[in-house]
Amino acid sequence: MIKWKFLNCICIFAAAIFILWVGCNEQPVDTEKADGSDSIASIEAPSNSQATLEEPTTESIVTESSVVESEYYPITEGQRYLGVYVQGPEETDVLADSINTLAWFDRFDQTSDYKISLCLDDNKYIAFITLQPTDWDLKLVSDGYYDDLIIEYFKKLSSDNRANTELFVRLAHEMEMRPSYKSGWYSWQTDDAHAYVNAWVHIVNLGREYAPNVKWVWSPNRADEYTTKYYPGDEYVDYVGLTLNNTLDSRESFQQFYENEGQRDYLEAYNKPIIFGEIAEHSTSDEVRNEYIQSVFDYLGTYDKCIGFIFLNQDLESARQYKFTDCELILDTFIENARDYICAK
């Protein structure tokens, strides 16, 4: 009897040892859910353990070769700038890459986004924008009434990599009133030169803050004793210019037109580099127009105080037809001279 009890104890003990051995060597069970999704166990890290570092993803890896420094496109001393006003950039096709500057008229509330992108994103041309505060009260401008629109416009000119590209802005041009004018043709033309100067200074201050890549062009219609009071001051002007659209229908040369009545002397007295923001010739004779355009290049090609000029190439009204690209004779003269002008140092 004792013998059987002894054997029974040995069997029970052996069975217990076997069960413990199986439990210690059991393989983990795959716990796939019935719906096919994986069950993920949550493991709490010990309180004294260090935080684990995630492996960097391809998006977060920055190598030396992946860092591309944005190029800078300044308006440089010694470079000449030649442009044409266009309504659509496709108009430049006939110019056969003879210009390096694209010009157009803009308003703070009506922007030419495609042309801006062509110049400031693609860097195909230097931008020359004649910026018009159309129908704005100059006193309200200086009081900040239009600041939201002004700032929004400037941010377009300097967003992202655009800030690395400098451009010309010809602000509120042809602002003067003179005794020979019966009335002005722009809303900002005024006898109140003080209001004009205050508005100019306010806009330029905003521009210097939100679009420091802008170079400011002050450009009256003529340079004489009637325009000096509209000059905002050297601190607020980078370049000076004029509108020189000749409507006399005569064989007067560009030199005669520019130097007439002392315009050259008045303009040079500001001691700023000159860029003519608008040049055009109206005549019923293509021959006369061609001679005039040739005289522009002949004169400005040797005028070292001038860094560039912009041609107006559109018909403003029936009595003033300034478009020249539709005349093969004039277009050939322009292209031939334009390339020489830009390349000359």
TrEMBL record:
Residues 1-334 form the GH26 domain. GO terms for biological process: substituted mannan metabolic process. It holds the Pfam family Glyco_hydro_26. GO terms for molecular function: mannan endo-1,4-beta-mannosidase activity. Keywords: Glycosidase, Hydrolase, Signal. InterPro entries: GH, GH26_dom, Glyco_hydro_26. Belongs to the glycosyl hydrolase 26 family. This is GH26 domain-containing protein.
